[in-house]
């Protein structure tokens, strides 16, 4: 991707909140969560799934708690595979690198080579502690990253092989990070960067830093968690904080329009609304 074309417009699941969530907002199961509908209706170019094995009690960042690789393969079996499918992101350290590589290559095969593998290091302290990845050193992160990338290329050690029934090329691997030092720790080797939306100058500045470290233009995927509010004529346009922004549908459409003009390859939109399909359609049309 060159960045000259318009970025893909992707849904970051879930489309609906879990059962038992806010009144009037339907829940869903993997078979009926609305992802098939939005793909078949052409509302999105991409589906991105998170890796949230557990979430802190009371955290509102709940929803798609299914295993992302199993869920992507499920969608592929239903014929609901858009141009891009991605993970945003799989937490390093919670699976052995060889097991993680096998899962990613399986999803890559089932999706017809459309996977973008996003890898990250968690971020929620209680979740990290429960998963046993709290306080991991920068060196441990770098070793884990390199081991996964080697395994995706078939380098799995002496005396063993990772043999897939249908050989596929490894997917591009994006690093989800807010820390430039993590990028340096892996020598600028990620194929892309998974970022939270924030202030536009800060994003451009960090992207420039990553490009300098890597010696090339770095592909980007930017995450938005958008809450749709009733129109308020006096409200100012929102500025995202770690991807989160709330505003009217027109304000949110303007926000995304500005980001489409930045060096962004993929927009990941998690929409929080009583009518997520309708509002997703409005954002797409805008």
Structure description:
Helix 2 runs parallel beside helix 3 and helix 3 crosses helix 5 (138-152). Helix 3 (97-110) links the parallel strand 4 (90-91) and strand 5. This protein has 286 residues and is of the alpha/beta class. An eight-stranded parallel β-barrel has the order 1-2-3-5-6-7-8-10, surrounded by four helices. The protein contains nine helices and ten strands. The chain has one domain (8-285): Luciferase-like domain (TIM Barrel). The protein starts with 7 loop residues before the first strand and ends with a helix.
Give a short synopsis of this structure:
The protein is of the alpha/beta class and 286 residues long. The protein is built from nine helices and ten strands.
Q: What key phrases describe this protein's structure?
A:
286 residues, alpha/beta, TIM Barrel, eight-stranded parallel beta barrel, 9 helices, 10 strands, 18% strand
Report the C-alpha radius of gyration, rounded: 18 Å
User: Helices and strands, in N-to-C order?
Assistant: EHEHEEHEHHEHEHEEHEH
Q: Choose one word for the global shape.
A: globular
CATH architecture classification = Alpha-Beta Barrel
Q: What name does the CATH topology carry?
A: TIM Barrel
The proportion of strand residues reads 15-25%
Mean pLDDT: 90
Category from helices, strands and their pairing: alpha/beta
**CATH class descriptor name:** Alpha Beta
The number of helical runs is 9
Spatial separation of the terminal alpha carbons: 23 Å
Query: How many β-strand stretches?
Result: 10
